[in-house]
TrEMBL record:
<keyword id="KW-0717">Septation</keyword>
<dbReference type="GO" id="GO:0000917">
    <property type="term" value="P:division septum assembly"/>
</dbReference>
<feature type="coiled-coil region">
    <location>
        <begin position="64"/>
        <end position="91"/>
    </location>
</feature>
<comment type="subunit">
    <text>Homodimer. Interacts with FtsZ.</text>
</comment>
<dbReference type="InterPro" id="IPR007838">
    <property type="entry name" value="Cell_div_ZapA-like"/>
</dbReference>
<comment type="function">
    <text>Activator of cell division through the inhibition of FtsZ GTPase activity, therefore promoting FtsZ assembly into bundles of protofilaments necessary for the formation of the division Z ring. It is recruited early at mid-cell but it is not essential for cell division.</text>
</comment>
<keyword id="KW-0963">Cytoplasm</keyword>
<keyword id="KW-0131">Cell cycle</keyword>
<keyword id="KW-0132">Cell division</keyword>
<dbReference type="InterPro" id="IPR036192">
    <property type="entry name" value="Cell_div_ZapA-like_sf"/>
</dbReference>
<dbReference type="GO" id="GO:0005829">
    <property type="term" value="C:cytosol"/>
</dbReference>
<dbReference type="GO" id="GO:0032153">
    <property type="term" value="C:cell division site"/>
</dbReference>
<dbReference type="GO" id="GO:0030428">
    <property type="term" value="C:cell septum"/>
</dbReference>
<keyword id="KW-0175">Coiled coil</keyword>
<dbReference type="Pfam" id="PF05164">
    <property type="entry name" value="ZapA"/>
</dbReference>
<dbReference type="InterPro" id="IPR023688">
    <property type="entry name" value="Cell_div_ZapA_firmicutes"/>
</dbReference>
<dbReference type="GO" id="GO:0000921">
    <property type="term" value="P:septin ring assembly"/>
</dbReference>
Amino acid sequence: MKDQHKTRITVDIYGQQYSIVGTESSSHIRLVASIVDDKMREISAKNPTLDTSKLAVLTAVNIVHEYIKLKDEYERLLRKMNKEKDDDSDD
């Protein structure tokens, strides 16, 4: 198995610098960091007394919740497509 090229990039999330290493492009890593930063700022605006660690946990919970909803919708659409495909082949 070939080693994939690793990208190292420094990003800013909620005022802190993080060095992130991954196999994705720099633009992808920046996008992910930007989404996390935006979500942290959104939650912080609604809950200004949260400390950073609680804010980070709530951010993770919110993002995973959104991920699960999208995954469920994706799987529902796949089932619907497969059913329609099966229905078409029955004709």
